[in-house]
Amino acid sequence: MSDTVKYILDETQIPKHWYNLVADLPTPPPPVLHPGTMQPVGPADLEPLFPMSLILQEVSTEREIEIPSPVRDIYRQWRPSPLYRARRLEKALDTPAKIYYKYEGVSPAGSHKPNTAIAQAFYNKEAGVKRISTETGAGQWGSSLALSGAFFGLEIEVFMVRVSYNQKPYRRALMESYGARCIASPSNETASGRAILEKRPDHPGSLGIAISEAVEVAAQRDDTKYALGSVLNHVLLHQTVIGQEAMLQMDMAGDAPDVVIACTGGGSNFAGISFPYIGQTLRGGRKTRILAVEPAACPSITKGKYAYDFGDTAHLTPLTKMHTLGSTFTPPGFHAGGLRYHGMAPLVSHCAELGLIEARSYHQLACFEAGVLFGRSEGILPAPEANHAVRGAIDEALRCKAEGKAETILFNLSGHGHFDMQSYTDYFAGKLTDLQYEDNELAMALAGLPSVPE
């Protein structure tokens, strides 16, 4: 049908393997370093935090890693996710561009995060782990790991960034409904949390702080491991089911994207849709522009430094080379809580350094404006994080209009905004502003980057 709106794959077409971009990169990514020795970390260094199966995926150079059957069986609950042609949005913009979006909000938790949460819970359960500690910003990752804990019978403890904890009570309620425990971070339950609260009792929190608390809890108990919802290689790997499905669906549409767009905070949904396309280009296939869209109030790719840094504020993690604003940087409390992370995934950062991707940043008012237009055109109200991708897609479509080009745009709509309605209420009431970070705070955070010998 020439006017098809959605493209649906059969359950049998759920990918059987995750795709590992490392296998196709022209140069390997820099190694992860131990902060004490400045030498590359080995599996033993990571074993207190992760099961060995995930550690092996973290360092793998194989192009394909098989998805276990129990994971694929649970994926069937919402995968394959639909691909939509945004025909009403195209009409509203009066653009010659064709706009498609891959919709990950159909998962039980409402975002792309269960793609890795289910996998991580499976491997932890297989390793005999009883309890997982984690952090969450907007709550999408915490909700997803809580869901996975319910499926696999694991105890889940979530440190939620305090500003999001206060902004998004229904995300907390969803986590608790799935059986998880949710704690506002920084908290009095950890040494790292108490140290921060002593200096600033009203601290809004950050993902870097919440990671410190979750890592500290995991390191203290033998039956507990840590899980991360973005940034690490194995997390990005698990998300590549998105892009693999999108490729099949674009084939169904008889089309192929000229540009692929996603929002970026830690990098997981961006990698999920873009890595299969980057790999296709690197293997000599069709060349696709890849655009990462990040918040102007936390712009790690566009304003950060490409350097070795800690992944957390208390410096409990190894050193990874990434675009970073500095591990002590606290972003202002804008509503896209899932994008309030000081660093970008090392693999995404490496792609940026190799010139394989582009990046741009937007303030939140422009993103909410785009999300409202999208919701009124397509009927789906995006999460504040996903609004950044919507803004990027709309601007690309308007560029096509100005240039008279009929390009094909594909973006990842990483989640719905049904648990983020307070942010929309604030937007319509005129209470949202374009928050700015303090230049001197950024300068101080970057000045404090660890010294790593070349």
From TrEMBL:
Residue numbers of N6-(pyridoxal phosphate)lysine PTMs: K113
Enzyme Commission no: 4.2.1.20
Catalytic activity, reaction form: (1S,2R)-1-C-(indol-3-yl)glycerol 3-phosphate + L-serine = D-glyceraldehyde 3-phosphate + L-tryptophan + H2O
SUPFAM superfamilies xrefs: Tryptophan synthase beta subunit-like PLP-dependent enzymes (SSF53686)
InterPro entries with a match to the protein in the record: Trp_synth_b-like, Trp_synth_b_CS, Trp_synth_beta/beta-like, TrpB-like_PALP, TrpB-like_PALP_sf
Pathway(s): Amino-acid biosynthesis; L-tryptophan biosynthesis; L-tryptophan from chorismate: step 5/5
Ranges where the Tryptophan synthase beta chain-like PALP domain occurs: 77-415
Keyword entries, A-Z: Amino-acid biosynthesis, Aromatic amino acid biosynthesis, Lyase, Pyridoxal phosphate, Tryptophan biosynthesis
A single Gene Ontology CC term: cytoplasm
Names of required cofactors: pyridoxal 5'-phosphate
Top-level taxonomic group: Bacteria
GO molecular function term, any single one: pyridoxal phosphate binding
Matches recorded under Pfam families: PALP
Subunit and interaction comment: Tetramer of two alpha and two beta chains.
Family listed: Belongs to the TrpB family.
Biological function: The beta subunit is responsible for the synthesis of L-tryptophan from indole and L-serine.
Protein name: Tryptophan synthase beta chain
